[in-house]
C-alpha cells in the first residue's frame, strides 16, 4: 500500500482489535510496533512496553519504537482501552477517573508525543478507536461513554491545529466486536445486543482493522475530523 514502510505504533496492539489493526497494517507494508502494558510481542510484530496512563511510560515507548524503526512514528493508532462498568449511582470517583485516564488522557498522551515527530516529518495519521456508545450512550458505562465521546472532540481539535501540516486525525467507532472485552458479556446480554444491531451479528476485529487501514492509507488524505462507524448500523443517526 505504501511506497516505503511507514512507522506505525498501535497501542493495545497485542490482542483484540489492536492486534487485528497491527496485522492489517503490517500486511499493507507498514513497519508496525505494538505497545501494551505487558510489552508482549505477537508473532511477527515488534513490541514495546507502554502504560498509556503514565506520561513517562508513553514517552519512553515512543522513543523505543522510534529506535526500532529508525525514525518518527508516522501513523498512530490509539486503541488501548478499558471498561469499569457500573450504574451512575454506584460509580466511584476511581471508576470514573481510571477509565478516563486510560481511554481519553492515554490517547491524548500518545497524540501529543506523536505530533512532535509528525510535525518534523510534515505528515502523519492519527486514528482514535472510540466506540458506538460514545455517541449513543450506554447504561452502566457513564465513564466509558464519556471517555469515548471525548476522543471525537480531541480528534477534531487536533484536525484544526495540525490539519495544515498534512496530519489527519480521525475516529473509528466500532459497535460490538468479538474480542475479550465482549466475551465478558453474558449470553443473555449478547443476545439482547445482537437484537438491536441491524446487521444481526457482532463484527470481527478484522472489520474494524479494514476501516483503520483505509483512514491510514493514501485514499484518506483529505478525510480528517471524521467519525467512521463500524457498527452494523447500531449507532445510526448519532
Ligand atoms: P481488549 O480488552 O481485548 O484489549 C485491550 C487492549 O488495551 C489490550 O491490548 C491491553 O493490553 C491494552 N491496554 C489496556 N490498558 C492499557 C494501558 N493502560 N496501557 C497500554 N495498553 C493498555 O479490547 P478490544 O480489543 O475489544 O478493544 C480495543 C479498543 O476498542 C478499546 O479502546 C475499546 O474500548 C474499543 N472498542 C471495543 C469494542 C468491542 O466490542 N470489543 C467496541 C467498541 C470499541 P495490556 O492489557 O497488555 O496492557
Automatic annotation (TrEMBL):
<dbReference type="GO" id="GO:0016491">
    <property type="term" value="F:oxidoreductase activity"/>
</dbReference>
<dbReference type="InterPro" id="IPR002347">
    <property type="entry name" value="SDR_fam"/>
</dbReference>
<dbReference type="InterPro" id="IPR036291">
    <property type="entry name" value="NAD(P)-bd_dom_sf"/>
</dbReference>
<keyword id="KW-0560">Oxidoreductase</keyword>
<dbReference type="InterPro" id="IPR050259">
    <property type="entry name" value="SDR"/>
</dbReference>
<protein>
    <submittedName>
        <fullName>3-oxoacyl-[acyl-carrier protein] reductase</fullName>
    </submittedName>
</protein>
<feature type="domain" description="Ketoreductase">
    <location>
        <begin position="6"/>
        <end position="180"/>
    </location>
</feature>
<comment type="similarity">
    <text>Belongs to the short-chain dehydrogenases/reductases (SDR) family.</text>
</comment>
<dbReference type="Pfam" id="PF13561">
    <property type="entry name" value="adh_short_C2"/>
</dbReference>
<dbReference type="InterPro" id="IPR057326">
    <property type="entry name" value="KR_dom"/>
</dbReference>
Amino acid at each position: 500500500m505504501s511506497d516505503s514502510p511507514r512507522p506505525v505504533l498501535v497501542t493495545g496492539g497485542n490482542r483484540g482489535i489492536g492486534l487485528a489493526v497491527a496485522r492489517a497494517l503490517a500486511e499493507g507494508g507498514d513497519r508496525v510496533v505494538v505497545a501494551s502494558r505487558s510489552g508482549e510481542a505477537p508473532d511477527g510484530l515488534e513490541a514495546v512496553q507502554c502504560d498509556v496512563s503514565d506520561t513517562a511510560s508513553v514517552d519512553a515507548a515512543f522513543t523505543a519504537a522510534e529506535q526500532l524503526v529508525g525514525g518518527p512514528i508516522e501513523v498512530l493508532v490509539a486503541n488501548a482501552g478499558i471498561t469499569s462498568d457500573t450504574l451512575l449511582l454506584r460509580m466511584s470517583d476511581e471508576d470514573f477517573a481510571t477509565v478516563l485516564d486510560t481511554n481519553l488522557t492515554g490517547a491524548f498522551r500518545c497524540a501529543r508525543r506523536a505530533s512532535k515527530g509528525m510535525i518534523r516529518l510534515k505528515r502523519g495519521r492519527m486514528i482514535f478507536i472510540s466506540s458506538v456508545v460514545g455517541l449513543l450512550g450506554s447504561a452502566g458505562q457513564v465513564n466509558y461513554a464519556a471517555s469515548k465521546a471525548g476522543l471525537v472532540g480531541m480528534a477534531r481539535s487536533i484536525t484544526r491545529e495540525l490539519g495544515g501540516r498534512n496530519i489527519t486525525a480521525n475516529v473509528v467507532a466500532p459497535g460490538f466486536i468479538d474480542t475479550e472485552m465482549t466475551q465478558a458479556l453474558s449470553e443473555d446480554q449478547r443476545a439482547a445486543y445482537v437484537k438491536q444491531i441491524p446487521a444481526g451479528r457482532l463484527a470481527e476485529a478484522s472489520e474494524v482493522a479494514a476501516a483503520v487501514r483505509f483512514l491510514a492509507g493514501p485514499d484518506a488524505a483529505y478525510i480528517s475530523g471524521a467519525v467512521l462507524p463500524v457498527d452494523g448500523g447500531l449507532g445510526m443517526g448519532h
